[in-house]
Amino acid sequence: MQKIDKSSIIEDGAIIGDNVIIGPFCHISSGVKIGDGTTLSSHILLTGDTTIGENNRIFSHAVIGSIPQDLKFNNEDVKLIIGDNNTIREFTLINPGTQGGGGITQIGNNNLIMGYVHIGHDVIMGDNCIFANATALGGHVIVGNNVVIGAMGAVHQFVKIGEFAMLAGASALTQDIPPFCMAEGNRAVLRGLNINGLRRHMDRSEINLIKKAYKNLFETKKSLKENASSILNNNSSKQVEKMCNFILETKRGIPYIRNNLDAKKV
C-alpha cells in the first residue's frame, strides 16, 4: 500500500514500489523507480533515470538525479543508482553519471548521507559509509566500504578512498587515501590508521598486522611503491594486501609525511 500526499506530483512512467510514503510537495519524474518501503518527506525532487532501492529514507529538499554539473554534458542517457537502507538528509544533491565517466553514479547500501552533502557525477560509493554535513565529492570519486568523511570535507575529482578510511572534518583531499588510513588537513595528509573504525570490525591480530605494514610503508627511507612491493612478497594478510595493492595502483599518489618534515607523494 502506498501513501502519497495529494500535493505531490508523480509523472506518468514513474514506478513506485509497495509501502512507499511520499510526503507533501514532492516531484517524481517519469524515469524514476522507487523501491519498496522507501520514505520521502517533503519538497523532494527525484528526476532523471534514477533508481532508488528499498527502505531508504530521504529528507526534505533533497535533489536527486538532476543533470550533472559538467559543462560537457549534452543530455546523454545517464543513470543514478541508489541501493537499499540509505538515509539521505536535507538539501543533499546527488547527480547521475556522464558519458565520459561511464554514465553511472552508484550509491551502495546502509549509508548515512547527512545534510547539504554533494555527490558529484560518476561517483562510485560503497556500503556503510558516513558522510557528515556539507561533505562535497567531485566527479569520478571512488569510495570504498565503511568510509567516514567529517563535516565540510572536500574531495577532489578522480580521488580514490579505500575501505575503512577516514577523512577528518574541514579537510581538503586531493590525493588517494589507502584502506584503513586516516587523513586530515588542507591539503590533507595521512595522520595514521583509523584505529577506532578497525576495532569495530577486526580482531587485534589483524589490526597488529596492519599497524606493522603501515610503519613499514610510511616510516622508512625507501620509496612507497618499493615498500609496498616488498611487503606483498612477504605477506599473508588479505587486509595488508589490499593496502599495498591500493598504493601500487594509485594514479593521484598518496599524501603522507616522511620524518615529520615534508609532505611526500608516491
Account of the protein in words:
This protein is 16% helix and 28% strand. With 266 residues, it is an alpha/beta fold. It folds into 2 domains: 3-143, Hexapeptide repeat proteins (UDP N-Acetylglucosamine Acyltransferase, domain 1, 3 Solenoid); 199-264, Udp N-acetylglucosamine O-acyltransferase, Domain 2, CATH 1.20.1180.10. The protein is elongated.
Features of the shown structure:
266 residues, alpha/beta, UDP N-Acetylglucosamine Acyltransferase, domain 1, eleven-stranded mixed beta sheet, nine-stranded parallel beta sheet, 30 strands, disordered C terminus
Helix/strand structural class: alpha/beta
User: What fraction of residues sit in β-strands?
Assistant: 25-35%
Superfamily (CATH H level) name of the largest domain? Hexapeptide repeat proteins
Give the terminus-to-terminus CA distance.
55 Å
User: Radius of gyration in whole Å, from Cα?
Assistant: 20 Å
What does the overall shape look like?
Answer: elongated
Low-confidence stretches: 260-265
Rounded mean pLDDT is 95
Helix proportion? 10-25%
> How many E strands?
30
Q: How is the largest sheet built, in terms of strand order?
A: 1-4-7-10-13-16-19-22-25-27-28
Tally of discrete structural domains: 2
Describe the main β-sheet briefly: 11 strands, mixed
CATH topology of the largest domain: UDP N-Acetylglucosamine Acyltransferase, domain 1
